[in-house]
Amino acid sequence: MVTETRKSLEKTKTKYFETSKSAKEFEKTVIKVLEDNEISMDEKLKTNESLLKLRNIAENNCQLYKLELNKSNKIFDDCDKKYYSILEKLRGHEESRTFYIKFTFEKYALLNEEFITLQNEYHNVSN
After folding, report:
1. Is 36 left (phi over 0), alpha (psi -120 to 50) or beta?
2. Are 39 and 53 contacting, i.e. CB atoms less than 8 angstroms apart?
3. Per-residue pLDDT tens for 53-106?
4. Rounded to whole angstroms, how far apart are CA atoms 94 and 100?
5. In whole angstroms, how far apart are CA 31 and each of 21, 24, 37, 44?
6. Of 11, 26, 65, 75, which sits most exposed with the smallest number of CB within 10 A?
7. In angstroms, rounded to a whole number, what is the distance separating the alpha carbons of residues 65 and 73?
8. Rounded Cα–Cα distance for residues 24 and 10 (Å)
């Protein structure tokens, strides 16, 4: 899910940056066209209208990118919370396992000492 979100975010980001770049480049062209006195007013209006449409598309892509970014951040936060709780459970299990192993070895050491003591007493009695 996180991978899909990242791909979607990257796709929307790329689309937004490309349309913004195109709008800026087209705006430079429009400025030159509007300064040219040889072009008719209708052509200037069409060019200006095209620029406004392209800016609108870039703005829409900007909004989509912001929505995708917010969605991605929410998913990442949810994953962080979920994995943090899982990690805490794992730590708890590891601590429990460590204490169990320590307790088992201590018990083994005591039983081993007791066995050695009994074995020594047996050898002393039998000799």
Report:
1. beta
2. no
3. 989 999 999 999 999 999 988 988 888 888 888 889 889 899 999 999 999 999
4. 10
5. 16, 11, 12, 10
6. 11
7. 12
8. 21
